[in-house]
Hints:
Blueprint (H helix, E strand, L loop, with lengths): L1 H21 L3 H28 L3
Amino acid sequence: MYYKALGWAVWKGGTWYLRRRYGTAPKKIGAGALVAAGIAAGIVVAQRRFASHHDD
């Protein structure tokens, strides 16, 4: 549940920032969304690996 809320906040914050910085250019917003999704996926994978190594 925490990750869902965090993902929502990152998504809303990212789209707000990109719209504010670049206007409503769809290609730039789409590219930024892909980058944000990649970063979020990397964080999730890293946290799962960290958690699996510390489940004593």
